[in-house]
Amino acid sequence: MTLLLKPISEVFLFQSHFQHPRLIANFSSVSCCSDRESYKAQTMVREFDPKIPIEKALTPPSSWYSDPSFYAFELDRVFYRGWQAVGYSEQIKEAHDYFTGRLGNVEFVVCRDDNGNIAAFHNVCRHHASLLVSGSGKKSCFTCPYHGWTYELNGALRKATRISGIQDFIVNEFGLIPIKVATWGPFVLLNMDKEILQKDDIDTDILASEWLGSCSEILSLNGVDSPLTYVCRREYIIECNWKVFCDNYLDGGYHVPYAHKGLVSGLTLDSYTTSIFEKVSIQSVEGGSKETKDDRLGSNALYAFIYPNFMINRYGPWMDTNLVIPLGPRRCLVVFDYFLEASLKDDKAFIERSLVDSERVQMEDITLCEGVQRGIESPAYCSGRYAPTVEKAMHHFHCLLYDNLIN
């Protein structure tokens, strides 16, 4: 027998009288770190001291970048709490659009329902845990490929197949598990905190305060949330811990003259400045020449790092974002999305030249990061030192990590 259900207008929330506690336990927490692993990881956390000034400080120990226990611990403490950038609103521009993703052991789907509302859910069927959907596209409902259970885009269970004889089955308790979702500018954000479930819209000012702190206006003034045309996505799997990529981004241009010979000619490195905010650091640098139509970098460049793993780069007519997704202790996925001012969206030659230049820089950075990871795993290395004049943003990142991990 197939059970057909009427649509439910609101995303359901778990009710306290749920009759199968073991089922709710599977969905109410995304922690993947045992007590023993947690104790081991906290011991490693304390090997870094954020109270020591940068001039005297040691960098975090190599265990932060290689130990499986530490990796599981930081997923729980860093990525499953607070706002995480996962995509952009262009991906769900119209009703029925959706995209999927994974962060740690959390599989998620973000969609826009029939009424134009954005929703996000754990991408897991409530019957026997099959993934519901993959990739991105357009669907009027989500039908499980395993046994055909079907869900509305608001998460409600529409159809449960062949459940004749089932007992104590409460329809409203078997919708998709929601994840708190919001947007800022062109970006889609999720909050996977198990204590927070969403029913109402998120206030934009509150979101900006929680995610960006006091620098949200600075980013707006520099065109980060201005209307831009989406160009393309590039993805890179890198054999390094996700923090290695972040550290490379945050060294204040230190590595640029040594590793990026083609890029350095377009920048005035002596003009590099770094500003530190609550959870954001912003690096700024002047271009090497006046901005012209053929100049990819323009006269000024802004590089914003939003803790823990999202980077926004605004330069010339371009904006690109870097999302670093941890895949394991020594592996990560870096997703680049490119946006361009509308006046240049049809200039295919300019776009192609710019993307070729950008690709060259990414390949150079991948070589650097993979080399660092191999060095970190060498018995010759434990901790390093900071260059105080240029690596303030990196030190800030490590201090934020410490605070998340120790509390």
From TrEMBL:
Protein name: Choline monooxygenase, chloroplastic
Cofactor(s) the protein needs: [2Fe-2S] cluster; Fe cation
PANTHER family: CHOLINE MONOOXYGENASE, CHLOROPLASTIC
Rieske domain ranges (all copies): 83-190
Keyword set includes Zinc: no
GO terms of molecular function: 2 iron, 2 sulfur cluster binding; choline monooxygenase activity; iron ion binding
SUPFAM superfamilies with a match to the protein in the record: Bet v1-like, ISP domain
Catalysed reactions listed for this entry: choline + 2 reduced [2Fe-2S]-[ferredoxin] + O2 + 2 H(+) = betaine aldehyde hydrate + 2 oxidized [2Fe-2S]-[ferredoxin] + H2O
Keywords: 2Fe-2S, Iron, Iron-sulfur, Metal-binding, Monooxygenase, Oxidoreductase, Transit peptide
Top EC class for this record: oxidoreductase
Pathway terms, separated by semicolons: Amine and polyamine biosynthesis; betaine biosynthesis via choline pathway; betaine aldehyde from choline (monooxygenase route): step 1/1
Principal localisation: plastid
Subcellular location: Plastid, Chloroplast stroma
GO CC aspect terms: chloroplast stroma
Enzyme Commission (EC) number: 1.14.15.7
Pfam families hit by this protein: Rieske, Ring_hydroxyl_A
Function: Catalyzes the first step of the osmoprotectant glycine betaine synthesis.
Family: Belongs to the choline monooxygenase family.
